[in-house]
Amino acid sequence: MTLFRHATYVLAALMLFACGGSGSDDDTPNRTLYVSAGADRSVSEGASVTLSAEASGGDGALIWRWIATPTLSITHADTSLPAATFVAPTLATARDYTITVTVTDASGVSASDSLVVSVQPDNSPPVADIAVADWPGLTTGFYPAGVAVTLDAAGSTDADAADAANPIASYTWTQTQGTDVLTDVMTEQAQLVITTPIASERQILAFTVEVTDDEGATDTTAVQLTVQSASETVPVIEAGVSQAVFSGEHIVLEGNAYTTIPSASPLAVSWESDATIQAPNSLSTYAIAPQVNTYTEYVFTLTVVDANGNQVDDTLTVAVRPYPVARMNDTGVTVQATTDAITLNQQNLWPGQDGQRGSDVIAQSGALPKAGDGEAGFDFTKLNSNGDEQDADSGSFSCVRDNVTGLVWEVKTDANDLHDKDHRYSWYQTEDNGGFAGDENAVDTSCTLTNCNTQAYVNAVNAQGLCGFYDWRMPTHHELLSLVHFGRTSTAMIDVEFFPYTGELQHSPLWYWTVIPGADGVQDDAAQNAWAIDFASGVDNFLNKSTAGSIRLVRAGRSAP
């Protein structure tokens, strides 16, 4: 105990004695209270520290209390005893804690004393680490000239970091060998991104990184990169993604090739395969998938040669399958689009378009077998009034068979007969009508029948026996939509060679009725509308059943309607 503390105790004793009365009574008990907290000490972070004090004098039982500045979590289970404990906190730097003990006797007299506990950090130094990804195609540690390489020290660790997610406080990169590549480069980040130098000779670049933890400890590690010479550095190429297509479809060949060596340009490019390639010396080109009878794989090899004679190859594989028997028509679209134009040219940068896949483009390449004829992927056969097949160039026919769907369609005329193109009908059907049969003979309808409606027309055509058939009916929505030729822009959207007199665009919309009542427009649980398709725009919509629309009847098909 220091001399100062002794002086403090003497002064306290004199004051307590002065308060004790006349001082002449030898039987007055000595209530002077003395306490000692013990000597100052130094401990390591995380250590369990026991506090123990001594006291003398006082009146009766004593109560003990410990406090610390700055605050510590002191465990003191029994305050009638001086013993207490605490665990020294984990610190980045050393810190002093003033710990005070106060003792109070039964008469309320108190005395205090303090000690200083210095807590010293017990720091584990960090461990520096540098990770560098191998360059594809090169031996570990070798890198081309003129390429960006990332040196990553984010894997450095510190066993006793206060924040395990961020154990390193700072990074410092230094280059120790080779052509300087750190000018204008950030060197105080976890990652160092450099560009390898272009030189006539192979060289070694060496780097170190020093990492510092939150407590100021450091560690350093190093790495070496071997950089190829300009003449050794080969072009970078990528043939593209493997694909699966049907015979006759377009195979997208969108290669990528470049060199990091300016003097190695220009690059000579060539594609090779058993399939015919449209422009084999262009990085961006396409091929027509060959005709196959079974699943067949074709390998396309992209070869690039630089001005230094370095040659690099890459391949992609294309699976080609026979085109299946179509059960539905394609759209008729063979054009392709960019962000701002419509074109007939192959657009590799916008793959997967309608104009690159399906029956239409296969027909365009001459690889689609047809039983009859027709534009794009459509396959139609003309039938005469007896239902017999006619040549595709015949100008006299009454029906058309769709060889894809198996449906047989009525052909409109310009003869002012039952099938005339100018006749219009309201939608009327006594069964399957959605709760409302429709209008038997609405305003604006016109035809050769007494009642110009869809049911009357079906009955009249079946009574006539068009093309020798007596089972004509109204088409479903999907059946009628199968005739829409979305590739047509200047005429009605249908193959006009097989379906003349569908209507003129200046008279649009060109609504044709389907057999399907519309769920929209229900009144008193009765459907007031029915679906129709506009052959001027290709859109479908519901029309009020009293609307005057055109009819194209259908029969047969691959499955029941």
Tell me briefly what this model is.
The chain has 561 residues and is mainly β.
Distance between the termini: 109 Å
Percent of residues in beta strands? 25-35%
| CA-based gyration radius | 47 Å
Helix fraction bin: under 10%
By helix and strand content, what is the structural category?
mainly beta
Topology, number of strands: 34
Count the DSSP helices: 4
List keywords for this structure.
mainly beta; four-stranded mixed β-sheet; Immunoglobulin-like; single chain; 561 residues; disordered N terminus
Task: Describe it.
The structure is a single chain. By secondary structure, the protein is mainly beta. The chain has four domains: 3-19 and 29-120, Immunoglobulins (Immunoglobulin-like, Sandwich); 142-227, Immunoglobulins (Immunoglobulin-like, Sandwich); 237-369, Immunoglobulin-like, CATH 2.60.40.10; 372-561, no CATH class. It contains four helices and 34 strands. It has helices at 3-18, 359-364, 454-464, 477-481, and strands at 33-36, 41-44, 48-51, 54-57, 63-69, 84-87, 95-104, 110-120, 142-143, 148-152, 168-177, 191-195, 203-213, 218-227, 236-238, 243-246, 250-254, 256-258, 268-272, 284-288, 296-305, 311-321, 336-337, 342-343, 380-383, 389-390, 399-402, 407-410, 511-517, 522-523, 526-527, 529-534, 540-544, 554-556. Strand 30 and strand 31 form a beta hairpin. The chain is elongated.
